[in-house]
Every structure is written in C-alpha cells, then in structure tokens.
Amino acid sequence: MLASFDFNQHDLVTPDGFITKIQKVDELTYNATVFIEKISPVFVGFQIDPALVLFNIKSALAQLGVDGIGTEYHLDLARHCAEIQVQLKAYGEVGKEMLRLLRVGAYVGKLFAADERRRVRDPNYLSRMFGRSDRWGRPLLSLGGMHGSNDLILDKIDGRTVAYLTLQNGRVMYEHTIDGFLPTAAKALQAGMPLREYVRLHQEWKPFAPRNSEGNDILLVRTLPLHIRTVYGKVVDSLLSHGYYHTSASVLQPDTLASGDIYELYGNSKRELTDIPLEFYTLEPYREHVFFSDRDQLQAKLEDPRSLFAAFETAPEPVNDRAAVFVVKGEQLLNLKPGDWIVRETRQQEFPTYGHISRKALMVERYIEQQPSYPFLKAIDAGTITSQGILLTRYFPSPFMKRMLLSDQVQRCLKGIYFQHPSQSFQDFFSAEDRSLLHDLDKFAIPVYWVDQKTQAILKYVQKPDRDSGLFVPLDEVEKFLKSTVFGIYGSNLIQGDLEPELRKLMQGILDMRSTVNHPLLGKDTPLSLVTGGGPGVMEVGNRVATELNILSCANVVDFRPKDQSVVNEQRINDYVQAKMTYRLDKLVERQAEFNLDFAIFLMGGIGTDFEFSLEEIRRKVGMISAYPIILFGPYEYWKEKITSRFQCNLKSGTIKGSEWISNCFYSIQTAEQGLKVYREYFNGTLKIGKGGPIYEEGFSQVVL
C-alpha cells in the first residue's frame, strides 16, 4: 500500500498534454482537443471544484505569441487522464505562424489546480525563505539575489499574499531568425522536447522600448532573475494594470531557477506596465523546504501524548504489518488517514551466515527495500522530500536501515523517530543491534521516541554523558535523568520482604541529606534516579518507593517470558516503572553491565542477585568504577551465610591477593539509619573505603550505631 502522495509528481499540476484534434476557426483562432495521460491519482484537481482547474499553456508557446484558454474540462480519476477543449489564440505575426504550424501530437500545456486551501495567506510564510537555500545552495526564494530584493514587494490583498515584481526597462523582441526556427519548434513540441531555452536564442532585449501594448501583438517583459523552490506562483490578472491580460502561461513552478523572468501579456493600453502581481500556492508539505524549527504547531503537538497516540491509531491493520509515515506539519499529524501510511506485509527472512557474499548482499538490499520507511528515506536522499519532519513507524526501524538513517540528507531532514513497538518478533524487547542503532542515532543527533502504550507516555531515548547506553525516559524527566545520581535495587523477584518502610526511610534520608553535603554525586541540586530489573518482588518495592518519593523510577527489563526448559518465574513489568530499557534473554550479561549505577543496594535474592553481586564486586576490583559503598539490606546472618565463606575461601587460597580491600565496599545494615550513616560518612569523606581501607574477614562490614 502506498501513501496518498506521489514522490515523482507535484499534486497541483499534471504532466503536459498533447493535441488529439485541431480545427481552424480563422487565422488567429484554432480549437483543439488536448489529452493528458498518466496523471497522478493525488492530483488535487480530481478532488476540488472543477472551476478551479485551469489550463496552462506552455510558456515557450506563450512567448511565441500563442495563448490557450480551456473551455471544457473532463477529468477521469479512474483512468488517470483528462480531456480539455482549448481555444488557441495567436498574437502577432510570429504567433500567427506558430499557430498555423501546430499539429496533432504537439504537447501544448498542462492543468493547474488553484486550490483555495493551498493559497498562501501570510506574507511571513514567504519572507522567511529569503536568505535560505536548498541542499545545492540554490536560493529558495529570491528576486535578483540570494537575499531577495527591494524589487520584490510582499503585500496582503483580499486575504492572500501578493508579490509585486518590478519590471525592468524595455521589452523582449524577436530577431529575424525566429521565422526559420518555428518549424523546428513545432516538431520539438510533437516530440515533447524542452523548447524555452531555444526560443531564448532568438530573442533580443530592447532596453529603451516602451512596455505597453496597443495592438494585436504579444508583449514580453522581464523582471530580475526569479528563483522559486517553495511555492507555485501565479499571475493575478485582476491586479494587472487596466487593459493588460496575461496569457494562460501564468503559473511558475517550484523548479524555477532564475528563468521565471519573462512574462507574456497582451491587451491595449498606452500606459506602461510597471510590475507583475503574483499570488502563491503551497506545495505538498513534504516538498516545502520548511525547517522543523518553523513548525510551531507540530512541535506543540509532539509534546502532547494524545496527539501521537491518536496518530498511531490511524495506521492500517493488521498490526503485525510494518507501517510508516513521514510527517512534516502539525495539521498533517492531526489529520492522518490510513491511506497516508506506507504498509509492508510481514516477511521473515533468513540470511546466509557464511559465504554467498553476493547473494547475501542482494537479499539484504531487497529486505531494505521492503521496509515501509524506505520510500521516505529514499525520497529524502534523492531530494524529493525537502521539508524537515518526523518518522512515525509502528515498529522500531530495522538495524538494516542504519545506512540510510545516518546518511547526510536524512540526518538533515529527519528530526525524530517515533515508534510504538520495539520489535515485530519480540514485542517490547530490543535486540543488541537495535541498541547499537539507538546509540548511533543519538550520536548523529536524531532523537528517538517510544510512544509507549504500557505507560501511556512518550519516552525519549537518552544517554548520560560518557555512557554508551541509555534509557527511554518520559519527556518531562529527561533533565532529571541527565543530572541524576543513580541508585540501584537488586533482589528477588519472588519476595517483597518487609523492608519497604525502611527502604523508604533510607531513600527519603538521602533526599534530605542533599541540603547538608557538598559532593560531586550529591548536593542541594542533585536529582536522584533509581534502577531495578523492573519485575515483581523486591524490584517492584524499589520502583514503588522511588515513584512515591518523586525519584525517577527506572528499569532494565529482560525478556523472561516462559521458554522451553525455563524455570524463571518473572514475566511482567511492574506498574511503577517510568523510564526503561529492554533486553532479550541472550544479552542478560550485557544488560547487567549497562545498569551504570553510582550506588547499589542489595536486598535478599537468589542466583540472579548473586550474579549481580559478583559483577558489582568485579567493577570495583578492576577499577571500572570508584570504590563507592554498596549497601546489603537485611539480616546480618543472611549476608554472612551468603558472602563470608566465599570471601574467606578466596582469602585463604590467595586468589584475591592485593584485592582483599574489596571487602570494605560492602556494608550490612538492618535499618535506614545505619545506611544513612554509611552514606553520610562517604559524602563527607570520612568513610574508610578503597585500597587504603581496612579488610573485613567476613567479606563486608557490619554497620552498628
């Protein structure tokens, strides 16, 4: 399924149409039938009042003195075509001869949909484009120079923006060589070849000729070189000086590059023409060259979770299919329809693991092309999508898309990735490759957001400085997370125990302690965050206490759903997790390394807790982190039975020689007051800890008051 726009055609114009029948009325007038085929289904003319659809003669023909007025329009959406009855009118001798040479098959013009909804009403929409350029350095909008000109006057008339283009002195006239060129021009029209630049070769600028028309001749006048990249321009006949009329070649397309400087008029007036009034129509939003910083409405809506959840509800079913849409303005986000999304069916592929390099490369390329985000990213890279915006995608992008996501042009245009599910196959759990892609996107300043149905919040991927991993954090908690000192709770998923009141007192005491200490990790302005494994039991206690105390409640969650031969009990994420990262089971060790705790707190736990204890011990032994104190919360006898025999065995065997000091990093407590004593001494610099500290034969210190 394709979205409701066409990457190859603009939606306000059709391709050029060709003559299928032509009949002479008199020497100056012919009637022709013009047929246009291969019209994009998104052509706006299929949808609006037919009276707003206008025939636009080719500018080269108009400059040669041939005008064309559409008298009847028949548009066929089903067949993607249109048939127009056109009255062709000649002005001047050159126009009369050119009209006589026109034959069936000549491409003579196209349709333009003057959609009132797309009319530019605010002059600021145009003026902010002055001084800006596209990716190739070409001005987005200018008259006579990169930064605009005093010769371009923007005004608001009858609820629309009008630009008055000052005319240069003189007029354009033809050299005698034009007579021999006209037969060639007629053949070029039949071949559908570009003609305007060749017509220009036979034109001569007469700087002192008057800019008025008093007979049946074409008046060619000129402005300074005009660049238009962001809008369509259209001559406003009603605002021309009295007695003048512009030909139907009145539309300037958004690919005008310093060539929209000749205007073709006719009429009868002794007064010299002084300027050309233009009104403007916007392009499709994704082609407007608009910066994300200019989209105030879009930025406001992205801070409102309701807008994003509602936008994802418009994605077509089934939910197992991948779906994506590129959004560049607030109105587009609020009015998404199922047809706006690109959808791809689920196709599981298995790539060769060894050898078959060419075959594997081809399979990967085809897999990339099957992703729903591919057409958008391809269009950005090709320059078809020029506005900055965000990508909404049902599933987090495949790591295979990394090459495209990090390309220069995509990085410039893509101002955010919003996804609903981390994985199509593993639901809420990221792979190692996914987290690597998250890391790279963060480095390349492409924000990533999880529109999380579980928490009903928008979570932003955030990495702390000097860390190569991060968490998805609620938008209003990002600053707290970045500045926070991180505490962690390790313990069993099977029991909650009876330590919740004491744990609450401990964490509250640390919050209160901020006003009395001045340490790099704790001071009056230091926010706190608390990380657990996100499951039930002790982890739920920790997350609940953090939430109640307005400490940022975080979790590194592993996919412990039941599997063959699995004896793991935990399955659900507790309801008190605010910020999170998720892991698949095969990356359990990697997940543990990414807790990145400043201060660990252990409660009663089993094999998993023993594993976590060992990792925290190793971190300090090898110097990965400084010798910060670790709290062992619970009965002294429990910790002695769990730790002491192991420590003394290592001590007696000499296998921890030189590292015996590691025992002074662990402190057994039973009350919050005991824990606060340890932290207070540490933050005040009086706690004997680290290589110069004592060795405790039990493998830890028992804290007494």
Radius of gyration: 36 Å
**Share of helix, binned:** 25-40%
Please tally the helical runs, counting DSSP H or I stretches of 4 or more residues: 20
Overall average residue pLDDT: 90
Which CATH class of the largest domain applies here?
Alpha Beta
Could you tell me the strand content as a percent range? 25-35%
Structural class: alpha/beta
Number of E-state strands: 34
CATH topology of the largest domain: Rossmann fold
| Measured distance between first and last alpha carbons | 70 Å
Most strands sheet: 8 strands, parallel
What characteristic shape results from the CA principal axes? elongated
Q: Return the domain count.
A: 4
Structure overview:
- The protein has 705 residues and is of the alpha/beta class.
- The protein folds into 4 domains: 17-117; 123-170 and 210-283, Deoxyuridine 5'-Triphosphate Nucleotidohydrolase, Chain A (Distorted Sandwich), CATH 2.70.40; 289-453, 3-Layer(aba) Sandwich (Cytidine Deaminase, domain 2), CATH 3.40.140.10; 479-705, 3-Layer(aba) Sandwich (Rossmann fold).
- The strands form 7 sheets. It has an 8-stranded parallel β-sheet with strand order 30-29-28-27-31-32-33-34, sandwiched between helices.
- Helix 16 (538-548) links the parallel strand 28 (528-532) and strand 29 (552-558).
- The longest helix has 18 residues, at 636-653.
